[in-house]
Amino acid sequence: MSTDTAAPVTTASDAPARAREVLGVSRLTNTALTSWLHGLSGVDQVGAEARAASLGTRSIKTTSKAWAIDQAISMIDLTTLEGADTAGRVRGLAIRALTPDPSDLSTPRPAAVCVYGDMVGHARDVLGDSGVKVAAVATAFPSGRASLAVKLADVADAVSAGADEIDMVIDRGAFLSGDYLSVFDQIVAVKEACGDARLKVIMETGELVTYDNVRRASYLSMLAGGDFIKTSTGKVAPAATLPVTLIMLQAVRDWRGLTGQQVGVKPAGGIRTSKDAIKFLVTVHEVAGEDWLTNQWFRFGASSLLNDLILQRQKLATGAYSGADYIADDSPSLY
Amino acid sequence: MPTFEYAPAPESRSVVDLQSSYGLFINGEFVDSRGGTPFKTISPATEEVLAEVCEASAEDVDRAVAAARAAFGSWSSLSGADRGKYLFRIARIMQERAREFAVLESLDNGKPIKESRDVDVPIAAAHFFYHAGWADKLAYASLGQNPRPHGVVGQVIPWNFPLLMLAWKIAPALATGNTVVLKPAETTPLTALLFAQVCQQADLPPGVVNIITGAGPTGQALIAHQDVDKVAFTGSTAVGKAIARTIAGTRKKATLELGGKAANIVFDDAPVDQAVEGIVNGIFFNQGHVCCAGSRLLVQESIAQEVEDKLKARLATLRVGDPLDKNTDIGAINSAEQLERINTLVKVGEDEGATRWSPECELPANGFWFRPTVFTGVSQTHRIAQEEIFGPVLSVLTFRTPGEAVSKANNTPYGLSAGIWTEKGSRILWMADQLKAGVVWANTFNKFDPTSPFGGYKESGYGREGGRHGLSAYVTTGAAT
Amino acid sequence: MSTRTTQTRTTQTRKTPGKGTSPDRVDVRKTYKLYIGGAFPRSESGRSYEVYTTGRSPKFLANAAQGSRKDARDAVVAARKAQPGWAGATAYNRGQVLYRVAEVMESRRAQFVSEVRAAEGLTPTRAEATVSAAIDRWVWYAGWSDKYAQVLGGLNPVAGPFFNISAPEPTGVVAALAPQSSSLLGLVSVLAPIIVSGNTSVVLASQDRPVPAITLAEALATSDVPGGVVNLITGHTAEIAPWLASHRDVNAIDLTGAADVEGLTWGDLEATAATNLKRVLRPAGTTATATEPDFTTEPGLDRLEAFLETKTVWHPKGR
């Protein structure tokens, strides 16, 4: 793939036009998409995993660790996506986002609170114009098994309730059966329905299985106008692994080279410790580059990660190891 | 704009207990040299003196060989199972003291701690573990009838993988019932001397392993010693040829693992991001002090620019500096002499008209350092495409067809290793058949394993190390004479 | 190849020179030549040397071509040219080609017996046994062509997600000093293990007993062995061997025939061979003195292995 042309950044409605330009075709067909996606360079699993593992051995100490912890906190989409979610639970989470550590008010706030569409209003009420965004999962999350009309209604509902960001799921069935055009069209339609809301495209990489598929899905999502590409719903294992995120970071890096457009990356699900989060930041830093090291372009979809980051933050501040009793937590397990 | 600077993350030196001076390890004891001159071994990263060691004299070589000869009878008649148990012990002690070995190796050699910690030391221990299991199974190794040891083995190893090369040499020699006199390189003697302590802790019978320090003349005396039955050498092709001449007409056996100028061949259907990693690993692993380094990148013209761009972007993230920093990717050049050689050949490359490029990076004030360097626009007739530089210097050439790639790859007197990057399986197998190289890495590079035979074609030497094949160099077969 | 057809048509049974097949006929004698690249040239030097029978009263046998260093050089060029094709033939094919050599030798059996008898001074019975053993040796090695790789190679269970396999490959161009005494069985025992794996060869025939070697070359030329796979030079071993030992396009050298050659020290050849790190198969013996081995016993794999390189290939295993 050539990296020499930098097409202008486009808006959502331009996506099909830009796709035709990127692919060099006069009509966007599934055949054209297939040959483009299948023409992307392959991913060697062992090599990719070895690279990720090697990035995971970086040793981040003292000042750089403190910086990384604050950065990671600020990148969290603090998430609750349970059938048992209530208004109270969502309000609690939103309040937590405003004051992540009451014992240390210098603690940065997470980027967003991520909830189901019907909970958007409760989060919006708390967060107001605090700067912490409200993100909503939509499009028949997590399976995506509904008609396009239902998915679009889901999106419209969340947006009208005040969502700043929409986390959609792609149709994995269509992707795996080679119906890339359908996946593309759905993303375009959802993006249209988003209006000003930023669109994160969840690829559910655990169901795509191979890294070749992850790379193709990443390109397809970016081509269709996604503002972010996101690994997982959190409902399927494996979720956000480091190698998968590495592949996606390579994709957004190369996409910018190709089109001039910057796209964000959001690993979600399974990232629970500061140590893990720092590995992801190192990977962002060394693969995509510093431009992605802000919550504008990188997010963690997580719930318990915040607790561990605060625990480590307290350790750095006090010099002593901390414990759960010193972490104010409004989202303990139901069980 | 956010910045993510990595604070220094040095591995602690306190795990290493350095003595101010070391003797020679002969017959199970550290002894003073007789008539040998002391010399200093330094840290190439700081030029700090680490310890004083002794250049073994001809008399010392005699004593070491005599000790090995005296130990040979009982060692070779020990049951294979018991020999194996000593090797298992050694493997375990190396694992127990792994961090100590890693820090000492990085101090003495200049290689990054992440490599000594994750590659050199664990694979060295694995070599002992692997060969331990062979000791009582030689009859099943298809080596020929009645496999039995040669006797005393003289081994001379290089400075690029001091402990690992020691393991490659000593483990198969002991497993097959030989006794050993080993000389580590003059710039990197310390892990071999620490290994001598491991032999003591393992209660290895005295004389089975003898370690004598020194430079070229000590090595020559050992190789030429008339009571040495087999020699094993890893190092330069020039010295390898001299050894071959030295032992010509004797009945001494030899394995020679020598230089290389490997082609790393990238096709346009390669998994590009992994290929870039493979290129980096191929030439910048261990500062390029690797005989099988992928020092010639052959890239298909249709993706040459993309690969070059990605490679340069990747190289910009390499961290050059303190070998003991856990985030260091490229450590120090092993010696002033080697740095001089690299400088000379790089100057030649520039004079020949190739385009030189290096990423921006600060180099420490003291010690021996060289930036990762890429030459583009290199032709097969440039000296930098022919001569082994043995440093972090990559020459980039292009090709158009598989046949042209094979011709260029094979167009060298060396034949140690090669790399192939393509997603097309049949092309890999065709290429692997055509390449004149003892080790072919397809869609990977610089992988090593005790079970996997390693060694070259043509002027890269002869014999194999590792695996069942490596054992055959240490036994004689057929009817007893 | 036009020369081959004219020059390989020889009488089935060689008679003692000087005596015709019938009293009233003067027989047609053969000019003994070299065998290079599938053709039978004279030595470029124009030289020849007298060859005698072995026995109590040696008799003049022939004027053999006295090969030169330039003939050796040409032979190496022919061997190099033939090597990729021969190595690229399937193992099954090489096995059939070697078996075909045995068939052709069998059909010339009487000639070989007579020549081995004359060359080595053997009794008829022993000459018969020697020729039988030589023919059987081709059959033995023919069978190895598609088996040794399985015996000597295999998968290596590396500690990681990699497919890793080691397989033997031919070393390339191999020069061989054929045994001086055992002019046919020894020659075959040296030659067959070199070429069975896909090497090509330049062989210096027994200096004093070259006639069976020349007839073997004729057998090879009329069998299916491609031209250049075996190149045979007659002449003075001590004169030509150093040129082969120093030749940088020769990958390996078999010094078996260095035993009992006047003016030749195998250690010197080995030292010369270090020029390009040739693989050296030393002559038999346990001391500096070379001896000629007993070729009547089963050879084992050592000779075959001496001219093989182990190639190890790695590949990741991933989805």
Q: What's a quick, concise take on this entry?
A:
The complex is a heterotrimer of chains A (335), B (481) and C (319). Chain A has 335 residues and is an alpha/beta fold. Chain A has 14 helices and eight strands.
Q: If you had to describe this structure to a student in words, what would you say it looks like?
A:
The complex is a heterotrimer of chains A (335), B (481) and C (319). The termini of chain A are far apart. In chain A, α3 crosses α12 (242-259) and α5 packs parallel to α6. Chain A contains 14 helices and eight strands. Chain A has helices at 15-23, 30-38, 45-55, 62-74, 87-98, 120-127, 148-160, 172-176, 180-194, 205-208, 211-223, 242-259, 274-288, 305-318; strands at 76-79, 112-116, 133-137, 165-169, 198-202, 228-230, 264-266, 300-302. Chain A is α/β, with parallel strands linked by helices. Chain A has one domain (13-318): Alpha-Beta Barrel (TIM Barrel), CATH 3.20.20.70. Chain A is globular and about 60 Å long. Chain A has an eight-stranded parallel sheet. With 481 residues, chain B is α/β, with parallel strands linked by helices. A seven-stranded mixed sheet of chain B has the order 13-14-15-12-11-16-17, with helices on both faces. In chain B, strands 8-7-6-9-10-18 form a six-stranded mixed sheet, with helices on both faces. In chain B, strands 1-2 form a two-stranded antiparallel sheet. Chain C has 319 residues and is α/β, with parallel strands linked by helices. Chain C has a single domain (32-51, 61-316), classed as Aldehyde Dehydrogenase, Chain A, domain 1 (3-Layer(aba) Sandwich). In chain C, 39% of the residues lie in helices and 16% in strands. Chain C is built from eleven helices and ten strands. Chain C has helices spanning 2-7, 69-88, 91-107, 109-120, 124-144, 148-152, 185-195, 211-221, 237-246, 266-273, 302-306; strands at 48-52, 60-65, 154-155, 162-170, 173-177, 200-204, 230-233, 252-254, 279-281, 308-316. In chain C, β3 and β4 (162-170) form a beta hairpin. In chain C, α4 (109-120) packs across α5. Chain C starts with a helix and ends with a strand. The interface between B and C is large, with 46 and 42 residues. β17 (439-442) of chain B pairs parallel with β10 (308-316) of chain C, so a sheet runs across the interface.
